[in-house]
Amino acid sequence: MMELAIQKAQLIDAPVRKLFLSFAVDSHGQVYKLHPSRPPERLTEALGEPVYFHEAGERLVFYTKSRNLAVLSPPARLERYVLESVPDQLTLTGEGFAMSQRHPKKVAASLVKVVGSGYTLEVESPRILSMASVDNNLYALTMTGEVIGLAASGSQLNEFLRIRNLPRGCTRVVAVGDKIAVKCQENIACFDAYTGKALWMQRVSLGSLLAWGNYLVLWEPEETSLELLSVEDGSLQTLSFKPVFTLFTAGGRLYVVQRYVVTALSAGLARENMLLPIPIPENMSVHNVDFYFSVSRWIASCSPTPPSVVVEKVSVKPAEGKHRVYITLSARTPSSNIPISNAEAVVKIGGIEVSSVSDEKGRIVVETELPPGSHSLQVRLRGLTPTESELGVVETVTEHEVDVPEDTRPLGLSVGDFLDDKYSVRELLGEGGFGGVFRALDILLERRVAIKVPHGHFSDYSVLLEEASKLVEVSKRVNRESHVVTEVYDVKLFRVKDLSHREKGEVFAIVMEFVEGGSLRNLLAGSSLTSMERRSIALKLAEKVALLNERKVVHGDLKPENILLTGEKNPILADFYTATLLGRFEKMRKLRKLVFSRLYAPPELINSGIVSEKTDSYSLGVTLIELLTGRAPAPGSIPAPLLEAKTIPDKCKKKLIESLSPDPHERPTTREIYEALQDTPST
């Protein structure tokens, strides 16, 4: 089963009241034409608050409190009428529409008006309860318990049919093909639309009625079944679902919306289940292969997408010839970002096939032996849906590249060692592919410092020197104005002694400012931040990245691991090996050597090695979404939790969504992201 992952999310002027095929109507009565890959096209000004909608095939009619009536039809046709009074009943006909209004002088009568191609006809009838049409024939259910058939003839509406002796309590008439059905208290009666001949009557239990193909669909909100009534012979069958919240038809299919799932029924009653990125959409529609749903003022366009499997971490333990490799994968739905737990995973890498099962957080840990080099990793995942396990399975196949270094000898430094009799090593803070970072004490100045040391096999220290020189230069550019990056205290070849002051040798290291609060990653994983604290960190982080970019510095690998926090939760940027210092008039640069984290890296960096200020816009957007919503977006899709977040204003959501664009020219600058965050409420 796939999820309807959000590909685009567009903001309109007012909350959405109705989605129909490729049209949207907002609460001000503005009509929009929807496009899957570009902003909605507004077709009309505000017509007033919509009161009533009616669908027929590929047309939609609605009227508003301002007495405007609009008829919509593909591809983008809109007909507008101004009514003298608000109608009681409204339906579409073959050439136009029909409506009934209360008779101005007779309490028990209605005036019926039919508007067609070049004509408007009017006739008086008993008070009308419901209306339907077949082609240009109009059928009116009256309060006298009759169905009257009306047809246009010349300049008049003439009665051609009258069905009497209906069961008690009739409330609605529905047209289905060449038949009409009348819904009464406990029964549905079906008649020939042209002769009025009674065809069948069936007892039913559910009240809401929808015409679909050759069926009448009976349902009630939050019930766990639908009744399908064949208009051909009146046969009744019951279909079971999870609690049903709404139904709609499109392209000959019936769509049944349940919590986190939509089921598409074909004419042969075959089912196709798709996961929804939010629990229950306010409105939903389908046009051709494009799916749309709305959340307040947001319209999201979606497409079926398999689960995403991301490589979270690769750690290596040295061994003779081959290394012991531990690969941590994460399996989640693409937009709702819900972990897929208890899923069977088959991982193929280096000619070896390993089976595993995902844990409650969707993580899959694979352990195997691999020689040094680059290895293709293929993951085949199969498991129950993460939201409603009875509805089906999710299945996907993804491929990644995993690099195993030539050598992984231990770090040339240990806890308890001394560097130049000045720095006492106290704690290993973290370890990566290049080396590790230790907390140490500067004995002479009595201050804590961070010491970055490469793995023992590194003999070329140019990488460390390059990072140190970048940090020094960046500090000159930005730290005078605001504390943006970690300060460098020393970088050189240090003499190392152990606790007994015996000589161990030498190690090349960079000594930096120690930031006591740890990384943003640790904070997100280990504590419950309030929404106010998340907003405060996000605002400070965006401001500092904006300042960095304005000084022509691109960090290039922004992610929670590279953002340190002081005790007051002020963010400080670290790990500048990937940084690019652009020239005064330089807009972008193509790198030869790429170092990035795939989840936070934009497509142009991954595919072409291109770095610009918009690189940080993308990475900052991903990081801020994770910080503000608790979940990082999967590559290539927009996270549903962002659209649903009530504490984030639409202006801020819009900039964060734009920051995820695959086209760097469509992304906002980091300064624009910061300015949008300033509008976020502080409580």
UniProtKB/TrEMBL annotation:
Positions of the UniProt region annotated as Disordered: 658-683
GO molecular function per UniProt: ATP binding; protein serine/threonine kinase activity
Bias-annotated ranges (Basic and acidic residues): 658-674
Keywords in alphabetical order: ATP-binding, Kinase, Nucleotide-binding, Transferase
PROSITE patterns, A to Z: PROTEIN_KINASE_ATP, PROTEIN_KINASE_DOM, PROTEIN_KINASE_ST
InterPro entries: Kinase-like_dom_sf (IPR011009), Prot_kinase_dom (IPR000719), Protein_kinase_ATP_BS (IPR017441), Ser/Thr_kinase_AS (IPR008271), Ser/Thr_Kinases-Pseudokinases (IPR051681), WD40/YVTN_repeat-like_dom_sf (IPR015943)
Protein kinase domain span: 423-683
UniProt entry tagged with the keyword Kinase: yes
Pfam families: Pkinase (PF00069)
UniProt KW ATP-binding keyword: yes
PANTHER family registered for this protein in UniProt: PROTEIN KINASE DOMAIN-CONTAINING PROTEIN, SERINE/THREONINE-PROTEIN KINASE TNNI3K-RELATED
Name the record gives this protein: Protein kinase
